[in-house]
Each structure stands twice: as structure tokens, then as C-alpha cells.
Amino acid sequence: MLPGKDGMTLCRDLRPTFPGPIVLLTSLDSDMNHILSLEMGANDYILKTTPPAVLLARLRLHLRQHGNHPKEESTQPITQHNALHFGLLCIDPVNRQVTLGEEVITLSTSDFDLLWELATHAGQIMDREALLQNLRGVSYDGLDRSIDVAISRLRRKLYDNALEPFRVKTVRNKGYLFAPNAWEFVQQ
Fold this sequence. Notes:
Shape: elongated
Distance between the termini: 42 Å
CATH superfamily of the largest domain: Winged helix-like DNA-binding domain superfamily/Winged helix DNA-binding domain
Radius of gyration: 20 Å
């Protein structure tokens, strides 16, 4: 079981930006779920009761089929329509890479997910409740400060001013705001 999202929803969300095979391993043995999963972009729908040798063979098949693409295709830079650009900041969701000017910014998976969530809602205030729900599938209990800590870490990595942030702003009693026009220069 996935926290907060089912496999079909996750598949639907991933498919537009993830070019690789998506295989759902599930305990739900229903024709309707099988059909819906495939229509939402899954490459395969495998039951958890499938013998390990068969599971392995099917996974290898998908990897072989996916591997038939020319190598140049996988190493080419991402096309403009997939990446988000804000001045000198470029966020590439396919390669999960962030560049600021000429520098590649190293982010953890959770930091990248947080930045992506903020950037896709650029100019909008995102409260802790929405961020926790969208990123982790959990509700905000009023005490959790993990988002605050993650925002602080993200600001540091993106050279935002810790005392007066201007790129990822705090909006008092509301949440956080990704400023889309604050990326024209690199301040280290």
C-alpha cells in the first residue's frame, strides 16, 4: 500500500514526465483495476501472488523493451516543455536535476520534490497542510515542523538569504511562496 495515493493515481501523475516502464505490483485482483491501470499509463499490472521467477522475467522484459531506445536519446538534454525555467534556475523533472546559473545544485529526493511542488505553484502561497498532503500524503497536525526545516535547507542550497528570504518567501500565518522573478542572478 502507498501512503496517500493509490498506484493508478501515482501512475497517472508519473506518466507525463517519466519515460521508463511503470509496473504496478498489486494485491488487487480485479479486471477493472487491471484495465484502468493500463489505460492510465502502466506498462504492466502484476499480482503479488505471481511466482518470483515469473515476476523477474516480466521485469526483465520491460527493461529490455525500454532499453531498445538509442543511447543518444537517453543522454540528450531535456526538452524545454518538460523543465521549469525561472531566470537562471532550471528544474528538470525527468533527470531530477536543478541548475542555478552554471552550477548543478545537489538536492535530496525530498528537497527536489519540495522545490518542484513550490515551483509548479509559483506565485501562489502554499501552506504546510497542502505541502504535507501533496508530498507525503499526510495531514498537518499543527505541530509538525518538518516542512519548515526542509524549506530552510532548500533556501541554503539555493543561495536564498536566510534572514530575509526573497526566493522562497515565508508569508506569515499563511505558508510559503516561490517567487518566480527572483532568479535573475546568483548570490552566493
